[in-house]
Amino acid sequence: MRVLITGGAGFIGAHLARRLVQSNVAVRVLDNLSSGDPSKLPPEVSFNRGDVRDVPKLWSLLQGVDVVYHLAALVSVPASVLYPREYNDVNVGGTVALLEACRDVGVKRVVLASSATVYGDQPRQPVTEDMPPNPAVPYAVSKMAAERYLFTIGRLSGFETVALRIFNAYGPEQPLPPTHAPVIPLFMQQIIGRGSVVIFGSGKQTRDYVYIDDVVDALVSAATAPNVDQEIINVGSGEETSMMQLVEQISATVNARANIIENREASGGIEHLVADLTKARQLLKYKPRTRLSEGLRKFYELDPRFNVKAGAGKVLTQ
Ligand code: NAD
Known about the structure:
By secondary structure, the chain is α/β, with parallel strands linked by helices.
């Protein structure tokens, strides 16, 4: 099997590429390196720098490709509020360009990395794929539009399509940008560095944190599983963790006390979001293997930025 991973030099993409290479899958990556790092890719991967909206480039990269993983996207919720046009251009425009090229070249299946943010606020938890989406931020709208284009163009053009709604993925090599950093690496850095951790809202808001290896299990399975055409499938841990519990767990993992600053005035986002995994179990034979405490320990021990094994406690930003 030959696959193309768009956005393959990013956090999820590089983990996926390494796993596929271990299984002797031929992997091509297309990434413009707006945030990715190609040094994370194994030498067996054919890396190509470029933009996912470049259709002629896609035509040549898609030759001989069976399955496309579409991961290239801008990924920050707060940044999408500031720059909705850019998020629309890359996340929606990039998806449409890719789908057009897939149609022209004739790939068999496209797997989209969609997002649990598409659900927004829902009347009940855990969320199931048949609930009407309620996106509340431009990033979520862009992912929802990408899903709709995926299914529409796939159906009209005769290739299979599946969208995985990934919840809060975390793990080694997760980017830690200077602004809008994801919560787990940010809190880990702040607690290790004896800085303050700011919690917005009540601290009781819950999320579903899923370890990177489990996300990769689902992505690998989505390439070949039967009966997934035109399906949306949740990929989470199925466990709900509040912001306060998360801080406690990270503190315990890194063995340091957290200096918590509570900002109750600010919004902590939606109150609850946790995945129902029934469909993932049925269609992908998905079973998350890593509990949060174990995933945090692995993240802490394996990520060189936290340098635990060297005993330096050094934290770098990326
Ligand atoms: P990431 O930022 O590490 O990876 C995205 C990659 O896309 C980067 O390497 C970036 O350089 C590349 N990219 C951005 N714009 C591009 C363009 N125009 N052309 C080519 N490449 C481009 O983020 P990630 O966490 O690895 O996310 C991967 C995918 O999974 C994204 O589509 C994201 O929306 C989705 N997702 C991630 C999570 C999560 O918790 N990490 C949750 C839900 C969905």
